[in-house]
């Protein structure tokens, strides 16, 4: 896992102060607050420190383990809803006969850190499978799916390096800053990842929650990324419009992340061939890590997992 010192980006205090003071997007998105939720100096102090660290020099492949009803699966995320648990509209690209722990052991053996275990549902089978994966690779995996203030530390205790949070913070379509502050107080900024997965709406990228079905009124831009970087160690961003469809990446989203994210960020969605990895590397200016799911041969696709691992290793060595 990269430490929080592997950050990038730059922004003046004056600019950040101005954006927080005058950004209508923020004022409309603060759930439960009528004015500035925190003293401005505290926000500036946290964000300022995060943007004055060494620039990252390598792009990493971040592996994944998606769990649904206890099984490792690759699902088209936009078809996963709470209201249709019978699976009548669920599009599953792949279901493995290997356990989540076996995939975790594979990633451990190959030295791949910072992969994410996502529980696509809060059922006991998925929770048990996720915990088995964390125990198989202590400190090497992040975990998300139903994370909240009450259970976040339990996953850390089971071996997760970080917890990944979306819906708990982006609640009822808005950013709930009190919940975000409480999470940081309990689990620590250095162990918190904010999932900012998004979908296009009105030509902008709106953060989505509740299995990517519900739009929030928070849009990804420089202002939002700078602000949230004060409360998280990393960002995880699925391009939901292309995720699981193997139709190519969302290059515009990758470019936005590479340009504006001041902390490590991982992009997921649409990778099909090796060239897509190079496109992400270029569009993200070498600042955006990548997850590959359905396209990998270990998940039923045509892209060789061993080739992606070799690409990852060459990046870590600085070889083109």
Automatic annotation (TrEMBL):
Pathway recorded for this protein: Amino-acid biosynthesis; L-histidine biosynthesis; L-histidine from 5-phospho-alpha-D-ribose 1-diphosphate: step 4/9
Main location: plastid
Single GO molecular function: 1-(5-phosphoribosyl)-5-[(5-phosphoribosylamino)methylideneamino]imidazole-4-carboxamide isomerase activity
Catalytic activity: 1-(5-phospho-beta-D-ribosyl)-5-[(5-phospho-beta-D-ribosylamino)methylideneamino]imidazole-4-carboxamide = 5-[(5-phospho-1-deoxy-D-ribulos-1-ylimino)methylamino]-1-(5-phospho-beta-D-ribosyl)imidazole-4-carboxamide
Stored InterPro entries: Aldolase_TIM, His6/HISN3, His_biosynth, Isoase_HisA-like, RibuloseP-bd_barrel
Gene3D superfamilies xref list: Aldolase class I
GO BP term, example: L-histidine biosynthetic process
Protein name in UniProt: 1-(5-phosphoribosyl)-5-[(5-phosphoribosylamino)methylideneamino] imidazole-4-carboxamide isomerase HISN3, chloroplastic
The species this protein was found in: Hibiscus trionum (Flower of an hour)
Organismal lineage: Eukaryota, Viridiplantae, Streptophyta, Embryophyta, Tracheophyta
């Amino acid at each position: 896992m990269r430490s929080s010192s592997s950050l990038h980006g730059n922004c003046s205090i004056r600019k950040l102060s101005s954006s927080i003071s005058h950004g209508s997007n923020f004022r409309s998105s603060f759930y439960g607050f009528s004015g500035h939720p925190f003293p401005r100096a505290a926000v500036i102090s946290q964000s300022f420190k995060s943007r004055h660290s060494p620039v990252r020099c390598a792009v990493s492949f971040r592996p994944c383990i998606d769990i649904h009803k206890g099984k490792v699966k690759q699902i088209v995320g936009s078809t996963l809803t709470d209201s249709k648990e019978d699976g009548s509209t669920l599009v599953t690209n792949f279901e493995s006969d290997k356990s989540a722990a076996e995939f975790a052991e594979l990633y451990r053996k190959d030295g791949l850190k910072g992969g994410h275990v996502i529980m696509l549902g809060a059922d006991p089978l998925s929770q048990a499978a996720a915990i088995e994966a964390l125990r198989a690779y202590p400190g090497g995996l992040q975990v998300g799916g139903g994370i909240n203030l009450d259970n976040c530390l339990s996953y850390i205790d089971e071996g997760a390096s970080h917890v990944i949070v979306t819906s708990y913070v982006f609640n009822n379509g808005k950013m709930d800053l009190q919940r975000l502050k409480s999470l940081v107080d309990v689990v620590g900024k250095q162990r918190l990842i904010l999932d900012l997965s998004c979908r296009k709406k009105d030509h902008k990228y709106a953060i989505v929650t509740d299995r990517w079905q519900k739009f929030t009124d928070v849009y990804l831009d420089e202002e939002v990324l700078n602000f949230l970087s004060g409360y998280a160690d990393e960002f995880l961003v699925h391009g939901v419009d292309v995720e699981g469809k193997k139709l190519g990446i969302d290059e515009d989203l990758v470019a936005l992340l590479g340009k504006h994210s001041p902390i490590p960020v991982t992009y997921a969605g649409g990778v099909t061939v090796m060239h897509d990895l190079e496109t992400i590397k270029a569009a993200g200016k070498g600042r955006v890590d990548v997850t590959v799911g359905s396209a990998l041969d270990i998940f039923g696709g045509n892209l060789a997992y061993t080739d992606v691992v070799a690409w990852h290793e060459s990046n870590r060595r600085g070889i083109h």
